[in-house]
Design goal:
The structure is a single chain. This protein is mainly α. It has one domain. It is 16% helix and 0% strand. The N and C termini lie far apart (39 Å).
Length: 95
């Protein structure tokens, strides 16, 4: 199921029906943006796995990319990151 790359919330999206003006109902970030796309990957050239895409310099704002496909939102939002880190530290803390 698709999710927001910023906050991790699940999105009620059927197929790839994301418009350029759509935003996440939870955090308000643009959905039709590079960081929300399944082709986004920080470890590859231009941070995009789609070789024919004209990649914009700003990966956070909405764009007109024809290759956009909503991703799974696998990135952890900043609000959850601190909670996950503290839970992991408590789990592996020496007693």
């Amino acid at each position: 199921m698709p999710g927001c790359a910023w906050c991790g919330s699940r999105l009620d999206v059927v197929g790839n029906q994301i418009g350029r003006g759509d935003t996440c109902p939870e955090c308000g970030h643009d959905l039709h943006a590079c960081r929300q796309c399944r082709h986004y990957d920080e470890s590859v050239a231009k941070q995009c796995k789609e070789p024919f895409a004209e990649v914009p310099s700003d990966k956070d704002d909405a764009n007109f990319c024809e290759f956009f496909q909503i991703g799974d939102g696998g990135r952890i939002g900043e609000a959850n990151r601190n909670r996950f880190l503290s839970e992991a530290e408590a789990l592996f803390a020496k007693k």
